[in-house]
Amino acid sequence: MLSIQSPRSVVMIRPHHFSPNADTAQDNSFQAKDASRTAEEISRAAYAEVTRAATQLVAAGVTVHLFEDETRDSPDSVFPNNWFSTHTGGHIALYPMFAPSRRKERRGDVIELLKQRYRVQDVIDYSGLEYDNVFLEGTGAMVLDHVERVAYAARSNRCNPVALERFCTHFNFEPIVFDAFDADGQPIYHTNVLMGIGSEICLIGLQTIKDEARRAEIVERLAAGGRRIVDLTHAQIAEFAGNAIELEGSAGKILAISARALRALTPAQRHELEQAVTVLPLEVPTIELAGGSVRCMIAGVHLSPRKLA
């Protein structure tokens, strides 16, 4: 049976020329530099990290559709969840991207494979909104509760309320919009950095939401959906502890999370997670230089598979 919240299949992109993207550094405070390695060494390390992560996911029973990116002009291509998403009922959405360099990440071959392997009814393309400077960067800008039909979204350059409203109308989600800030008071660029929703748990940095009434409303909505909250500190958010994704493996639900993020959690938090999922740590320190982690690397496939001959 197809899991509503936790996909069994994912799309990943293996970059051949990875580098942190200068176009996105202005509003992504999670990006970092590594002066100890050459650009070529960083690129090779990123390639190896994606390869290893995909292998671990396959070993856990997740179907991984791994695509290659051999171009040099799309440094963030390793994060495909920003430019498309898939939804039960056979729907795909394509999104308008804030940075011009990221618009090159959209690929017809990815969508064609999904049409071949899964039942796709329609593709709704919002990318034309880029010409109006209206942006909505997919399941980076939104964290979707597929069961309760709620789209949680932190305001940012990457999340325009007009585009969000249009998406929620098309896909039958209720938008819950809020302001979220890092420890230095800067707006957090993507919602999925501070929040990850699973079937039974939700990793969330409640400290990032300064509006107490809004914070309480979010806690209430998550509790109403049966989610137990694992509250993350600013320091844990900075270690990408919120940037995790629940998937369906061969032996049940797994939580794909970076090894760095897992090390940042307390024993009590780890125990809480282990009550609901099998935790799968992935070592992606080079990828994390770009300001994203495991969740950003994985585009879940919420489509019904076709019976192939």
How would you describe this structure to a colleague?
It contains nine helices and 15 strands. It is an alpha/beta fold. The protein has a single domain, classed as L-arginine/glycine Amidinotransferase, Chain A, CATH 3.75.10.10. Helix 4 links the parallel strand 7 and strand 8 (174-178). The protein starts with 8 loop residues before the first strand and ends in an 8-residue tail after the last strand.
How would you briefly describe this protein structure?
This protein starts with 8 loop residues before the first strand and ends in an 8-residue tail after the last strand. It is an alpha/beta fold.
Morphology call: globular
Number of domains: 1
By CATH reckoning, the class would read: Alpha Beta
CATH superfamily membership, which one? L-arginine/glycine Amidinotransferase, Chain A
Q: What count of helical segments does DSSP give?
A: 9
The oligomeric state is: single chain
How many DSSP-defined strands? 15
Widest sheet: strand ordering: 2-1-15
**Radius of gyration over C-alpha positions, nearest whole angstrom:** 18 Å
Class computed from helices, strands and strand pairing: alpha/beta
Mean pLDDT: 93
N-to-C CA distance: 20 Å
Pfam family, one: DDAH_eukar
InterPro entries: Amdntrnsf_FN0238
Protein name: Amidinotransferase
Organism: Acidocella aquatica
What distinguishing features does this structure have?
single chain, 309 residues, alpha/beta, Amdntrnsf_FN0238, Amidinotransferase
